[in-house]
Amino acid sequence: MANRVPTGYTIRELSPRTLPDFETLAVKQGGCWCIFYQRTKPLRRGTTSEQWKRKNRKDKRKLVREGRSHAILVYDGKTAIGWCQYGGRNELPRIDARRTYRKAAPPVGAGKLWRITCFFVDPKYRGRGVAKFALKAALESIRKQGGGTVEAYPVASAKMAAVPEWRWFGTPDMFRKEGFRTVASLGTSGVLMRKTIAP
Q: To bridge 197 with a disulfide, which of 56, 58, 147, 191 should be the other Cys (CB 3.0-4.6 Å)?
């Protein structure tokens, strides 16, 4: 059942039941299907754009149906208008491939580790706080699932943050307002932020 938030929007978890709503919104995002960080390695070279899109969609559907892909979907009425992807370390393994991340990564087995990797908001709804509501809902969902350490990887470069595609990672300020602190830089443009959530 959907949870009401002060704006009148509703929030639901990504699931086989809400997958069609996610797919309708994902078409507006392009062809990524928010699966980049769920792969351990990129698709092989030579994959055409259409093959890449079809493969991403097929693999995303499989992960959702198996309960291995988590996200908060934000709705305006019956229309999905945005999402925030989150998940455990095993669900979002691509982060571990970043050399700059590995230097600051917590040791394996150090406790439950959650990751918040991506946001997407329908262009018609941008600037209305949709991503912030999705973030709050994701953090509450993590708390209900036992809590732990939560990581985020926003872009800190003002130049890159001005490009809509790079805002898919969120901004340091939105995470800071939710109690995250900066742990390390990730190259020249991003930062690693963390927060601990008690169950």
A: 147
